[in-house]
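Handout, page 2. Input:
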Amino acid sequence: MSADGWAMDTSPGAIGDPKENTTFYPLRGKGWDGGGVTQDTINGDEERRTRTFAFCISHKALAVCGIARSVGYLRHPNESALPQVIRLLDSVEFAN
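Output:
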């Protein structure tokens, strides 16, 4: 986390192979903020390569983190579930 909120560490070696197309997504909801990162699979059968999404959202001293091992196949970018996953996370509300 930076002074401006969540950010990705871009120091050398921190985000893996550049071919993985690591992308940061700021997340914000009711009373919380967080971040998510996608990375592309670069090994194996090209037809089966997927995009992974990992996230953490925090509220006061609490945090929820998780990973979706596959939000879509790289060969079919228009069929990605990433927009729906981000909308679902944006709808999260922490109870007091």
